[in-house]
Amino acid sequence: MRVVAAVSGGVDSAVAAARLVDAGHDVTAVHLALSAHPQSHRTGARGCCTLEDARDARRAADVLGIPFYVWDLAERFREDVVEDFVAEYAAGRTPNPCLRCNEKIKFSAVLDRALALGFDAIGTGHYARIVQGADGPELHRAVDPAKDQSYVLGVLTAQQLAGALFPLGDTPKDEVRREAERRGLAVAQKPDSHDICFIPDGDTAGFLRRRLGDDPGVVVDQAGAVLGAHEGTFAYTVGQRRGLHLGVPAADGRPRYVLEISPVDRTVTVGPREALAVGRAEGVRPRWCSSPPRGTVRCVAQVRAHGTAVPATARLDGERLHVVFETPVEGLAAGQAMVLYDGDRVMGSATVEHTSAVGA
Amino acid sequence: MAYLDHAATTPMLPEAIEAMAAEMAHTGNPSSLHAAGRRARRIVEESRERLAEAFSARPSEIVFTSGGTESNNLAVKGLFWAARDSEPQRTRVLVGAAEHHAVLDPADWLQDHEGATVELLAVDELGRVDPRTVAEAVAKDPSSVALISLMWANNEVGTVQPLGEIVALAHKHGIPVHSDAVQAAGQLPVDFAASGLDAMTVTGHKLGGPFGVGALVLGRGLNPLPILHGGGQERDVRSGTLDAPAVLAFSVAAQVAASDRVQRAERISRLRDRLVREVQDAVPDAWLNGDPDPGGRLPGNAHFSFPGCQGDALLMLLDAAGVECSTGSACTAGVAQPSHVLLAMGADVERARGSLRFSLGHTSTDAEVDALVRALQPAVGRARRAGLVVRSG
């Protein structure tokens, strides 16, 4: 096959590209330029998106002896990922930009461009597996549970999966590093990337404040009593405990958590930990990796990239997904993705719109 | 493989390789006083004379540098500083809008850091500066112009500039004129004395010499302030130990290029004309950028916009088919920016992004042009489909 290997400059995508070459594919390395004004050097724990990362990616491609190109997706990334991220926070939701990027950029804009240019598939360094099932390709968890990235791929449709290759899904991370070393790839010891690539200093609240401006309001308890003030609801996430800056301690002396964010009246509601427990959620924008579920199905639901998965039942009603968690999940916020699994197989996902507390 | 990117770099001439390899076996710093140094100095000075002859300059007018970028920086910054030091009101720098970045960026730097005012000389739709444009810019206040810099021929679209008229009018006002002749040298008759220029940039690897060596041909009355300070080599204008093997190979290449120039240019020009014809037959809406009159452009240059295509997609597809070309001047990060040359010529962003340069040189063959023509049609078809996907997505 003719394959585009998306190379970020990190160790995973470099080894993935090498394995695609070994598998006999005709591989072209493509580095995605996602920022119109990239920084020169890495800062903190990021592994992509600087000019230094672009050079690392090109160096890896040169070692593998494959062509290397940079595709400029900065404008699409800004529109589809960064602006969406800001708008979601402004609306009081908690988005995951990595899912958004996989859905709209890597496996949409990039895959479509690759297919139009005569390639057959795009390969990435994601830790997930594609298994050929009876009804076509299935997305499965990686064998290394610590690295499994199937959650951030839960937005891919069957058609997108048909054009995707994940050569690292069956390998633990430390083995990938050893393999990079063995292959003479200079990125072998490069640290893993974390956080959000377009917020290089890791200060999400500061980034949002620069974009949205101060929008002061009040912090209240569940009864509506004012406990303090804030500079903007975007600085808060449901389930957050630190940085609430409340002058008055709770009557019972127990820690308080953000329960609800309401940008319309600029109010942040806080309360005890047990009030965070969510028993049911409704999701919108469902995406199915294979055929949509019929009736009520038993599954396992995961609500954050590195969170534990809990048993649940799900029912699709038109474009709305109703999920009941058998074990309550804590601090589930609107905007987060619920990814549903059948064992290791990813069924699909939906974006949380509404949650209900346990017993509500 | 079809190598159609001679404007990026052209293969070294066998004579230059032989001379360089032989000289590398010798020891000696041309600045040393002992026999080994004297021997190396003789090689350097003979090379200087050879280059002077190739470009119709005096040997003392050849200042060796590390290449085109350094020569352009030395000319633009050094001549600006020299002019301002002797006449402080001379702060205007006039540069062509379609210059290489090695001229535009030093000029911008002078504006940002040294109090210069940079004025871009507009080009017409063929990429040419009208001498009247220069006359008008100068006439605003002739005594405030420090320097005019205008390339001999454009690196992207190949358009040759009317330097003679511009030099004449500049000299009426005592304004020095520099020209980046990196692309013209070896392809056009480049006669420094007849041109009347005050400074001219040439480089080795564009005319069959090695990388990393070039020269600023510098009129004897001009004393640009140096950028590199040190041992005082090269008229105290450019310090640094001279690379005798590279200097020698550069001079040999320039000599061979000058002596073969007429026949070679004729052959390359015929090949280029065939390339243009057959590209337009294969892709009827391909738009030839630059001067359609072969007399007004570099003999090896063909430059097209392919409507509906992105140049970098087309480049990748042609590369995969064994045809090597360029979207314009190479850029470090690898992200294709729309060409400032085409934008200056009045092209819209789409036409600028959808352009490719095919440049021929001394090793070019009919078979290479055939390979391009064979690969082009399917590549354009695919690039167009990809262009539609990107726009509708």
Describe the protein's architecture and organization:
The complex is a heterodimer of chains A (360) and B (393). Chain A is built from seven helices and 17 strands. Chain A has helices at 11-22, 51-64, 74-90, 97-116, 158-162, 173-182, 204-212, and strands spanning 2-6, 26-33, 68-72, 121-123, 128-133, 136-141, 164-165, 217-220, 226-230, 257-262, 267-271, 277-288, 296-302, 310-317, 320-330, 337-342, 345-357. In chain A, helix 1 runs parallel beside helix 2 (51-64), helix 1 packs across helix 6 and helix 3 (74-90) packs antiparallel against helix 4 (97-116). Chain B has 393 residues and is of the alpha/beta class. In chain B, strands 2-8-7-6-5-3-4 form a seven-stranded mixed β-sheet, with helices on both faces. Chain B is globular. The two termini of chain B are 35 Å apart. Classes of the chains: A alpha/beta (360), B alpha/beta (393).
The secondary-structure element order of chain A is EHEHEHHEEEHEHHEEEEEEEEEE
- Rg of chain A, rounded, reads 21 Å
Structural class of chain B: alpha/beta
Number of helices of chain A: 7
Helix content, binned percent of chain B:
40-55%
Label the structural class of chain A: alpha/beta
Number of helices of chain B: 12
Largest interface: A-B, 23 and 19 residues
Please give the share of residues in helix of chain A. 10-25%
Strand content of chain A: 25-35%
Number of strands of chain B: 12
How many strands in all of chain A? 17
Mean pLDDT of chain B: 95
Oligomer: heterodimer
Distance between the termini of chain B: 35 Å
Estimated share of beta-strand residues of chain B: 5-15%
Low-pLDDT parts of chain B are none
Listing every helix as H and every strand as E from the N terminus to the C terminus, the arrangement of chain B reads EHHEHEHEHEHEHEEHEEHEHHEH
